[in-house]
Amino acid sequence: MRFEPKRLFADSAAAPAANDLPARSAVKVEETWNVDAIFADEAAFETMFRTVRDRLPGYASYQGRLKDEAVLLEFLNKANADSVDLGKVYVYAHLKRDQDTSDAKNAGLEMRTRQLFAEFMSALSFFRPELASWDEDDMSRLIKAEPKLEAFAKYLDDIIRFAPHTLSDGEEKLLAAFSPVLGSGASTFSTLTNADFVFPHIRDEEGKDIELTASRYSRLMQSTSRDVRKAAFAGMYKVYGQFQNTCAGTLAATVKRHNVEKDARHFPSARAMALFDNAVPEAVYDNLVSSVNQHIDLLHRYTAMRKARLGVEELHAYDMYPSLVKDVDVHFSFEEARALVMAALKPLGDDYLAILDDAFSSRWIDRAENRGKRSGAYSSGSYGTLPYILLNWQGKLGDVFTLAHELGHSVHSYLSNKTQPPHYADYSIFLAEIASTLNENLLSNYLLQQWDDPDKRLYVINEFVDGFKGTVFRQTQFAEFEQLIHEADNRGEAITAEFLTEHYGEMNRRYYGPALTFDPEIALEWSRIPHFYYNFYVYQYATGFAASSAFARRILAGEKGAVERYKDVLRAGSSDYPIEVLKKAGLDMSKPAVVEEALASFEAFLAEMEAAPL
Ligand SMILES: [Zn+2]
């Protein structure tokens, strides 16, 4: 079943674990989320936990009997109800854990629900293979015999369309048994880079000796001190360079696994197999890559603008991340941020604002910074719970953007839960980042209307432009590289460190253009990107950003019906395939227009930055 509680993480900088933060017990209740709305107390949680667990053995009796309309309907209703209950148990436990990770009791709750989750998946594991072994007309016969099954038609179709790509029982069992082995390229890479690598010590801005770590790296890359950035860059690639052959080995194994599986499952390519999951046409991917390449001069202009604004003789790879403008010294109380976000999102209509009101007054949001709290920000919930938001509120402008972003996810979940039955309430990642980045887009626009101060305006524009560079250009570069290595392997070429470095280096020069001085280390960047193990996933960040940019333009231009069409996307859940959902809302992602339009917005903001005095 599709019921995985949504856990959508935003890219907000992790706050350092400060010791002077208050204990969780000292936090004011209005700064916390209302977890009690799920279960009044732990006794109620435990009762539900046991109820769900006790129902699991009952599923075995359905196995092999689903080709009977009454049995199938009963099974689907039962699985729906149980998945809602399990979602509540799961969300309750993980929110409790995240609000204070140092609380051992809550960590225990979370571990137990994870286990229950695995048991549930295992109890239902016969379902998909059993359906995928049917003929197409079996389903229409059952729906004719039991019209109530019509409510599950797309859901069932979505399983049956895998039939031509499903292997025999024995082969599927063998593949499943081998799956830890097949995934060992990715897991070895993760262990190697997260656990085994030892990075050198460097000096930070204050001359303090610190150990370089993967998580510190991105913060250090934004440092205003060039020496610090340069040292971090050199230190990072010294280690990756030393292990480049092992990293090439883990990546090559992953690529090979995808290519072997696509042959076994009768797909023309690994990419076709990955996109089949959400029924995304390959034209969507091709259009993204070709549109971005056609306008790659915009990224070259960006690089040249960055070089000019930083005032450096040579722009190096370690100069690509520091902010190009002075940090604006503005501080927002949470109440001010609330008012600002409400004003910025006003174009979305009164009903949208009413949901936001509910989010604030019914305590969806946990904003307190306290000892042991999980860092960063996310939106998380399930069908039977509120769409909760975790923040670590510090009152910076970036925090206001994070709030708008997470509210985008949560209102999306709220509308989709409210409109759809449980089996259609979840939505794919292809749609998820549209709702969040659209809110950020509206907030940027609102601030630019409100603010006259050139420094503050430039700050907002810089955030947008850098966000665009990181989301659209960089993810498209990754998407193109992913395709290149899978095709090369398919042709029988050896995916060695030498091969990867040569092609990545070439691509990096092509993307960033002549203003960026070529550092040989950057050609090794392929070796440290975990996204290359995700299997044709990251292109969705770029298409999502482009789609939200197109929606924002239509909404802000006051185009008739634009707001309602956008809200239909939020209400759709997975009741239809994401490409179809967007098509109904007027965006055809299989044509270049949407990406082209987003690139035009980027160009307009880029031109403002180019024109701004240094
Ligand atoms: Zn997000």
Essential attributes:
four-stranded mixed β-sheet, Neurolysin, domain 3, 6 strands, binds zinc ion, two-stranded antiparallel ribbon, mainly alpha, 614 residues
Model description:
- 61% of the residues lie in helices and 3% in strands.
- The protein is mainly alpha-helical and 614 residues long.
- The chain has a domain of 272 residues: Oligoendopeptidase f, C-terminal domain (Neurolysin, domain 3).
- The strands form two sheets. A four-stranded mixed beta sheet has the order 1-5-6-4, with helices on both faces. A two-stranded antiparallel ribbon has the order 2-3.
- The protein is globular.
- The termini are far apart.
- The site of zinc ion has 6 residues, from helix 17 and helix 19.
Second CATH tier, the architecture of the domain at 277-330 and 397-614:
Orthogonal Bundle
Rg is 25 Å
User: How far apart are the first and last residues' alpha carbons, in Å?
Assistant: 55 Å
CATH-assigned homologous superfamily of the domain at 277-330 and 397-614: Oligoendopeptidase f, C-terminal domain
Instruction: Round the mean pLDDT to the nearest integer and report it.
Output: 93
Helical stretch tally = 25
Main beta sheet strand tally, sense and closure: 4 strands, mixed
Secondary structure category? mainly alpha
CATH topology annotation of the domain at 277-330 and 397-614: Neurolysin, domain 3
Helix content: 55-70%
The portion of residues forming beta strands comes to under 5%
Ligand list: zinc ion
Low-pLDDT segments, ≥5 res: 1-17
The first-level CATH class of the domain at 277-330 and 397-614 is given as Mainly Alpha
| Overall body shape | globular
Tally of extended strands? 6
Strand order of the largest sheet: 1-5-6-4
